[in-house]
Design goal:
15 helices; two-stranded parallel sheet; binds heme-as; about 575 residues; binds copper (II) ion; mainly alpha
Length: about 575
């Protein structure tokens, strides 16, 4: 059957048509392909581990449950996301900063790509040969092969080069456009990378000064509390490193797709700056039940966590307003008539809207987790796993799928056909349904006390544990949906890479236009030194005394243990 293109009637050749330079295309496609490769392995591990935990299958003795869990977490949470984000950022920078990346950014971009890839290959190989079954948080005193930590260090340092590539293209633009405020996409990419650089300081110190010397045997013991605290200095901000690129898409690209305008040029910038300030000094909300940190400092970070909710609430308001204004501009009547005017049959819109809808209960779950006392009831249960499958694996990932479906054709010069668009919508529905089964049930069984990070066990047929079992079945059903969803997504990826019909016309790269009423953003929003300074200050306030006491009251430290 001859496939007709969805967008080539007029939208395809409007002001947002764009052609990438071949050098940029290669760089971006390298990142996206690596990301989708990680998706393939990570998703197989995800399916197998859920089936094993439900007692549906028994893994062969060569493959361990925790080994799969490590592969799943590392490849999806750390690798798929990072490579996708970097590729997407390069594309938007090329699109909004004069049509191409500058040569220096390309060099930095390739250095970053190779460092990260080598790091990932080393780390993955060690997980696959069962020398690094330490889960994606690699908590000490569980000790992996030292080369696993070297791989992790390469991934982190490589990503710094990616950040430098982003800064380099941005700085070139600013030099050439003195006194102007930067395009919104570029501003947001820079803000995200500043957040990333600050956050990764924590994990870099942990890996380089604690884990590597200890795992090579240069020192015997490790200060476990300190290492976890350094990890969470990074670990919470990591979740915003995943989320902010999704917000970039919602704020900058989607207005074009819904036929609306970006109604403010300042509010989205303020949102991102709030994330720079409040993402880091909040890591203790992952350690509320850990000894060694006094409750005053935990409570302070709980308050700061509630602050970091504010920019997400601002985002909810702004995105809804954008949708409503777009719908009304198309003649919608009544209180909710605008909802019907939205492009529900467009996968570029449908996937991220599914992502947004899931984020409403997901965010509420986050606020529950962050509430100091409530955390005790659900910490280390499947509630937490449910929370991050709704936030990361739904909100972020579905948004990324919504990006991939137009970004890949715009890079490969192929058409997003009607059939692929439809498949994209089917994919998002499967994902949404799968997540209700999987994450929804994880929340419920977590409230009943089912622990996270635990293989199949009936705990001697104890009645409490037996009551969890039916829920495990529902979770496994959800996992099957998600596995099929991943396979469809991989099929879409391969089709748009190699099979979809070629087109000579430039393909649309949607970038929303600013509303005429949007005012020039105040200069202060782009004085980065102010925001970086404030961010460091807040972290110093929230962390200095706890770090000192972790040093002062440190026990002799732990010898390595191998639990697998
Ligand atoms: Fe979280 C644990 C608290 C957000 C990821 N989180 C985790 C872990 C991960 C993770 C991976 O305080 C597990 C780590 C581990 O392995 O141990 N989280 C929060 C809070 C937020 C939050 C307060 N988390 C995220 C995001 C993640 C993520 C985002 C990934 C991307 N989280 C916690 C806490 C823990 C935790 C505790 C530790 C638990 C423990 O005990 O170990 C907030 O940022 C959430 C704010 C979000 C909202 C939602 C706003 C809604 C929006 C959608 C608008 C909808 C529209 C739709 C526009 C308030 C923006 C309209 C459409 C129409 C057409 C009608
Ligand atoms: Cu957190």
């Amino acid at each position: 059957m001859a496939e007709t293109a969805v967008y080539d009637r007029k939208a395809n050749i409007d002001s947002s048509s764009f052609r990438f330079q071949p050098e940029d295309k290669r760089l971006i496609l390298a990142h996206l392909s690596f990301a989708f490769g990680a998706l393939l392995i990570g998703t197989i591990a995800g399916l197998l581990q859920t089936l094993q935990r439900a007692g549906w299958i028994t893994l062969p003795p060569q493959i361990g449950y925790y080994q799969l869990l490590t592969a799943h977490g590392v490849l999806l949470a750390l690798v798929f996301t990072t490579f996708f984000i970097v590729g997407y950022f390069y594309s938007g920078l090329a699109r909004t900063l004069g049509g191409e990346l500058n040569p220096r950014a390309r060099v930095l971009g390739w250095i970053g790509f190779y460092m990260m890839s080598v790091g990932v290959i080393i780390a993955t190989a060690l997980i696959l040969v069962n020398e690094a079954t330490v889960l994606y948080t690699f908590y000490a005193p569980m000790e992996a092969s030292p080369w696993f930590y070297v791989g992790a260090a390469l991934l982190v340092v490589g990503s710094w080069f990616s950040a430098f590539a982003v800064f380099s293209s941005y700085l070139r633009w600013r030099r050439e456009h003195k006194g102007e405020s930067s395009p919104l996409f570029a501003f947001m990419a820079v803000a995200t990378m500043i957040l990333w650089l600050h956050a990764t300081l924590g994990v870099a110190v942990e890996v380089v000064f604690q884990l590597i010397p200890w795992s090579f045997g240069w020192v015997d013991r490790i200060n476990v509390s300190l290492s976890r605290t350094l990890f969470w200095y990074f670990g919470h901000a990591l979740v915003y490193f995943w989320l902010l690129p999704a917000y970039v898409y919602w704020y900058v690209n989607i207005p074009k797709i819904v036929g609306g305008k970006i109604f403010s040029n300042s509010l989205p910038r303020l949102t991102f700056l709030l994330f720079i300030l409040f993402s880091i000094p909040v890591g203790f909300h992952h350690q509320l039940n850990e000894p060694g940190i006094t409750s005053f400092w935990k409570f302070l970070q709980v308050i700061l966590t509630m602050m970091v909710v504010v920019p997400s609430l601002l985002t909810a308001f702004s995105i809804l307003a954008t949708f409503e204004l777009a719908g009304r501009a198309k003649g919608a009547k009544g209180l909710f008539g605008w909802i019907k005017k939205l492009p529900w049959k467009d996968a570029r819109f449908f996937s991220p809207v599914m992502a947004m809808l899931i984020f409403v209960p997901a965010g509420a779950g986050g606020i529950i987790l962050a509430s100091y006392q409530l955390n005790q009831t659900v910490h280390n249960t499947w509630f937490v796993t449910g929370h991050f499958h709704m936030t990361l694996a739904s909100t972020v990932v579905l948004t990324f799928f919504g990006i991939a479906i137009w970004l890949i054709p715009s890079l490969t010069g192929r058409k997003l056909t009607r059939n692929m668009n439809r498949l994209g919508i089917v994919q998002a529905i499967l994902w949404g349904v799968g997540m209700i089964f999987l994450s929804g049930t994880m929340h419920i069984v977590g409230l009943m006390g089912a622990p996270r990070r635990s293989a199949y066990a009936t705990y001697g047929n104890h009645e409490v544990a037996m009551a969890w079992l039916p829920y495990y079945d529902i979770i496994a059903i959800g996992a099957v949906f998600l596995f099929v969803g991943s396979l469809i997504e991989l099929y879409i990826f391969l089709h748009l890479m190699f099979v979809a019909p070629k087109t000579n016309e430039p393909v649309q790269y949607p970038i929303g236009d600013m509303a005429e009423t949007a005012k020039e953003p105040p200069r202060i929003l782009e004085r980065w030194s102010v925001w970086i300074g404030l961010s460091l200050t807040l972290s110093i306030i929230a962390y200095t005394i706890p770090f000192i006491s972790l040093f002062e009251h440190a026990p002799p430290g732990s010898l390595p243990i191998r639990t697998w």
